[in-house]
Amino acid sequence: MLLIELFLIFVISVMAAGLVISFSNNRLIKSFSDYELNGESPFVSILVPARNEEDNIEACLNSLLAQEYPNFEVVVLNDNSTDRTGAILAQLAKTNSRLRVINGSPLPEGWPGKHWACQQLSQTARGDLFLFTDADTRHSPQALRHAVAALLQEKVDLLTAIPREEVVSWGEKLIVPFMSFGIQSFLPIGLAQKKRIPAFSVTIGQFMLFRREVYEAIGGYKEACSNINDDVLLGRTLMQKGYRWCLLDGTDYVSCRMYHNFSDTVEGFSKNVFGFFDYRIFPFVLVWCAVAAIFLGPLRILTGGILANQFFSTAPRLALIAVLEMLLLFFIAYRRLGIPLYMTLFYWLTITLFVLVAMRSMVLSLTGHASWKGRTLKNVEIRWI
């Protein structure tokens, strides 16, 4: 019983630290609207890789082409699409002089598909700044103006943003918000930006605004081929080489519906969760076992105490404190991220599903079956520690 109580005190401490970080991030993470462009308007190349995106590409490009910014181009790479993506791009290019469409070259050995697409885009881009974004994103007309202003005023080399994740089906609501919850609740953004700690950096591929010379100095996508999580690796490499990074709250200006059902959501996260740990088995398993124990253990202890009519003993009461802290953490994060607040009550199911997805991600990588959009993910170096 003493060990259980010590475990619960530890969990309460972890959740308390999370609450401190969450409140701090609410105060320190600025929004796009905190910046306004004053004079300087460097030329921006907005770069969009597109593979089989017939359901998304037109709405995405219409939002990008409508930017209230005076000096930009939009370049889209059709990455060997087999659906109507190419035809839609050709039609849009006829009526929009800012839009350039290029066809992707065959995928070289050792390159993940998106990495190669983005590498080609950067090679043809003309801008002083590169904005990499995804085909399933939507951007408000003011997004680029505020983002460029933020990059210039903060004097950073990479600006990234947390988008509003559009979640419709139950599968999306349960799984998609978890990563953003983790950033909001347990990553001290202020410390990461001030101390330039690469391990604490967060780069979100749905919105990455680089200074061109810095992107080229860190080797661009050629240096990110070893990990499917291109955004994470690019951000860490940039900070390791002494450049500056900034994370903004972009939920009012950039939105994205990553997946459209439970199956797509599981497949999508399965391709990259293992990569967040640089394909290291021991730390990966250790972290996810700890996540399961910390988030699910107190609820199990509380439920067991109630069913055994022992609620007023020490362990169930400590478990109740831990559970209430978790509910508050999820509430704070979901409120900021625009996730339906009633989903807070299902945090235990979110944790359970994401841990299972994480394990699936590792198994797929270990067996060589990890894939995305019809391509097997290769060039993965798996290590024990």
Overall description:
The structure is a single chain. With 385 residues, the chain is of the alpha/beta class. The chain folds into two domains: 2-24 and 276-376, no CATH class; 31-163 and 204-260, Alpha-Beta Complex (Spore Coat Polysaccharide Biosynthesis Protein SpsA, Chain A), CATH 3.90.550.10. Helix content is 50%, strand content 13%. Helix 7 crosses helix 13 (314-337), helix 11 (262-270) crosses helix 14 (347-367) and helix 12 (281-307) packs antiparallel against helix 14. The two termini are 33 Å apart. The mean pLDDT is 91.
Mean pLDDT, nearest integer?
91
Instruction: Give the ordered list of helices and strands.
Output: HEHEHEHEEHEEHHHEHHEEHHHHEE
If helices are DSSP runs of H or I spanning 4 or more residues, what is the number of helices?
14
Can you count the beta strands?
12
Largest sheet: 7 strands, mixed
| Secondary-structure-derived class | alpha/beta
Q: In total, how many domains does the architecture comprise? A: 2
CATH superfamily of the largest domain: Spore Coat Polysaccharide Biosynthesis Protein SpsA, Chain A
| Radius of gyration over C-alpha positions, nearest whole angstrom | 22 Å
List the uncertain runs.
none
Taken as a percent bin, the fraction of beta residues is 5-15%
Assign an overall shape: globular
Remind me, CATH topology of the largest domain?
Answer: Spore Coat Polysaccharide Biosynthesis Protein SpsA, Chain A
| Cα separation of the termini | 33 Å
CATH class of the largest domain reads Alpha Beta
What share of residues is helical? 40-55%
Q: What's the CATH architecture of the largest domain? A: Alpha-Beta Complex
Q: What order do the strands of the largest sheet run in, or round the barrel if closed?
A: 3-2-1-4-8-6-9
